[in-house]
């Protein structure tokens, strides 16, 4: 039985990732469903034991029929998760980090995980999603590793708390409850 983590040439790995990502992108575009990319990288040089732990973790947490897991480089792996919304993608990344921690008593096999999600369309190439995942992976490494970063959908902005004098005045005013049946209908 050949491991899906088997060593491959850099060119072969790139071709496999590109083909799998393009296929998932096309499917997501046709279905208007979110596509997640999870990049996993060892924080130190991977050992055979570390690779076995990671392979088990990814087989468990990326096990749906259309999920694809591939080796991207000597210490980096990719999971392409079709029909996966941002919270689900983030959870997969966190589960991989947690699984590595649980199976690693000597802290020698820790990983950083970067997650990116987008709803594919004809206006952006799938490489944009891969670049976003790479950026979140680098952010995880920048935080010292052994963590998962990312998971927000493309184009989303986290809500900001209102600020300024007008927001302060609104906070002081009593909230009005409007009966939805009495509210003016515009449709």
Total individual domains: 1
* Number of E-state strands: 5
Largest sheet data: 5 strands, mixed
- Estimate percent helicity: 40-55%
Topology-level CATH name: Alpha-Beta Plaits
Oligomeric state of this protein: single chain
Number of helices: 5
Structural class: alpha+beta
| Tertiary shape | globular
* Average pLDDT over all residues: 84
Report the CATH architecture. Answer: 2-Layer Sandwich
CATH homologous superfamily descriptor:
Reverse transcriptase/Diguanylate cyclase domain
Strands of the widest sheet, in order across it, are: 2-3-1-4-5
Order of helices and strands: HEHEEHEHEH
**Which blocks of ≥5 consecutive residues have pLDDT under 50?**
156-160, 180-187
CATH class equals: Alpha Beta
**Radius of gyration, Cα only, in angstroms?**
21 Å
Q: Kindly, what is the distance between the CA atoms of the first and last residues, rounded to a whole number of angstroms? A: 61 Å
Which range does the strand content fall in?
A: 15-25%
């Amino acid at each position: 039985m050949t491991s899906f983590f088997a060593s491959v040439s850099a060119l072969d790995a790139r071709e496999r990732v590109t083909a799998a990502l393009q296929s998932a992108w096309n499917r997501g575009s046709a279905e208007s469903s979110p596509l997640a990319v999870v990049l996993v990288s060892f924080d130190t040089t991977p050992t055979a034991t570390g690779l076995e732990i990671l392979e088990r973790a990814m087989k468990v947490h990326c096990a749906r029929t259309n999920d694809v897991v591939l080796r991207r480089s000597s210490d980096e792996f990719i999971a392409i998760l079709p029909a996966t919304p941002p919270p689900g993608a983030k959870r997969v990344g966190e589960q991989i980090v947690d699984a590595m921690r649980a199976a690693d008593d000597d802290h020698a096999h820790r990983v950083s995980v970067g997650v990116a999600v987008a709803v594919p369309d004809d206006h952006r190439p799938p490489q944009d999603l891969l670049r976003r995942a790479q950026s979140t992976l680098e952010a995880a490494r920048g935080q010292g590793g052994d963590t998962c970063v990312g998971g927000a959908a493309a184009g989303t902005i986290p809500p900001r708390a209102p600020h300024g004098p007008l927001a302060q005045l609104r906070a002081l005013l009593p909230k009005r409850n409007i009966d939805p049946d009495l509210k003016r209908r515009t449709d």
